[in-house]
């Protein structure tokens, strides 16, 4: 038998109990930035061992393409396009192709159910995974760009622009890859779409645009990585037009925000099914 002090009203005691029960049930809401960092670190540690061999494959692929193109292209604007396109191709291989496969397998294997139970915003899952995969492209992209400049006799002076090209192009391609993987009904189709996207980045990014038909040029303008390629290629000139460089980077950044937003919507759509 419990004894309640006379100065405590029964209604107040019940209200305090309900308030305490609600406070116990509701925890603090997870914020975007700490959740993003946590997902990024987890993805980085998981993919470090598995993705490093694939990063070597992506780098050797781009270096091999430049060596083959060296027998066709001697210099000038075409050489700048080949080197810039081959460098961004490393980003496309990892951020677009591998990320599409990862989210396709994650959806098919029920991995999205695990993330859905975590107290993290959906955007942090997409951004964390995209950031981790894009981080693997930094060494390969730098090595490819330096090798291409030496091979074609291009200046190394403005290669610091890679610090902007890699994250912006990586965000655009990673968002596209994540969306393809999450929207594909089967993991095999996600792998196919990722491969097709990487092939488009190869054909439309590495080959000089001046030699393409008009219809292909229009398709090239729709590819997110094109603007990263153009921004990097412009910096190889003797007197780069930085206004156009910043314009290409701005377009790449806008496309990156839109593609990551679509990927976040696709994650929410796939997680509730």
Architecture overview:
With 273 residues, this protein is mostly helical. Helices cover 79% and strands 0% of the residues. The chain has helices spanning 10-25, 32-70, 76-108, 111-117, 122-135, 137-152, 162-183, 187-206, 214-222, 225-234, 242-271. Helix 2 crosses helix 3, helix 3 (76-108) crosses helix 5 (122-135) and helix 7 (162-183) runs antiparallel to helix 10 (225-234). The longest helix has 39 residues, at 32-70. The chain is elongated, with a radius of gyration of 24 Å. The chain starts with 9 loop residues before the first helix and ends with a helix.
Give a brief description.
Helices cover 79% and strands 0% of the residues.
Task: Give the SSE layout.
Blueprint: H1 10-25, H2 32-70, H3 76-108, H4 111-117, H5 122-135, H6 137-152, H7 162-183, H8 187-206, H9 214-222, H10 225-234, H11 242-271
Helix pairs in contact: 2-3, 2-5, 2-6, 3-5, 3-6, 3-7, 3-8, 3-10, 5-7, 5-11, 7-8, 7-10, 7-11, 10-11
What features would you highlight for this structure?
0% strand, mainly alpha
Note the quaternary state here: single chain
Radius of gyration, CA atoms, in whole angstroms: 24 Å
SSE run: HHHHHHHHHHH
* Main beta sheet: none
What is the helix fraction of residues, given as a range?
A: over 70%
- Individual helix count: 11
